[in-house]
Write a structure and sequence with these properties.
This protein is of the alpha+beta class and 183 residues long. The chain is 27% helix and 34% strand. The strands form two sheets. Strands 4-5-6-9-8-7 form a six-stranded antiparallel beta barrel. The chain starts with a strand and ends in an 8-residue tail after the last helix. About 14% of the residues have low confidence.
Length: 183
């Protein structure tokens, strides 16, 4: 993954990060020391931390319990995996874009993550980044993403039929009667 530059200097992240919308739950204490449970989805993730939106303000450096639903990787595991670990809030900033929006941008560092879960996250981040690179390479070559190839394949016979018609000699093209559809 390319190193991103921050406004104030070089990127400080040590682990690769990927954009991912994973279901997750954050449990901690809000500004009033009341218990807060936030069900949200991640914006991006690495094996060292996660970034998400929160409806509650959670103080920086406070401990939180995180539960993240990590999807199955092709050919690796049987199903979704629940990652449960402790984390530390490293940033919680207001994301008030609209008037009355009380959301927060929340960044958490994993503080107690089992080695098995860290390896699973590394594998997931690598897989997602490879998928992104493949999609970007296909777009740069003018190919369509794999999802839309079925639609393109259905259109090909018409295009090849048109090419076949245009390759006929001019004299034959003029004598071939055109069929009109009955509408």
């Amino acid at each position: 993954m390319p190193v991103k530059r921050r406004r104030g200097g070089a990127e400080r992240r040590r682990q690769a990060r990927t954009e991912a919308r994973l279901s997750m739950r954050v449990e901690g204490r809000d500004a009033d020391s009341a218990s807060a449970q936030v069900v949200t989805e991640s914006q991006n993730i690495s094996s060292s931390g996660v970034y998400c939106r929160s409806s509650h303000f959670l103080a920086p450096f406070s401990k939180v319990d995180l539960t993240i639903v990590l999807p199955r990787l092709p050919g690796v595991r049987a199903g979704n995996e629940l990652l449960k670990c402790e984390g530390i809030v490293v940033r919680c900033e207001s994301s008030a874009v609209k008037r009355g929006d009380k959301g927060f941008q929340l960044a958490c560092m994993f503080s107690a993550l089992e080695p098995r879960h860290r390896e699973m996250l590394d594998a997931y981040v690598t897989w997602r980044n490879l998928q992104s690179l493949r999609a970007a390479a296909a777009a740069a070559q003018g190919e369509r993403p794999a999802r839309s190839r079925g639609t393109a394949a259905r259109r090909r016979p018409r295009a090849s039929a048109a090419a076949a018609r245009s390759s006929r000699p001019a004299a034959k093209r003029a004598t071939v009667p055109r069929r009109r559809s009955a509408r």
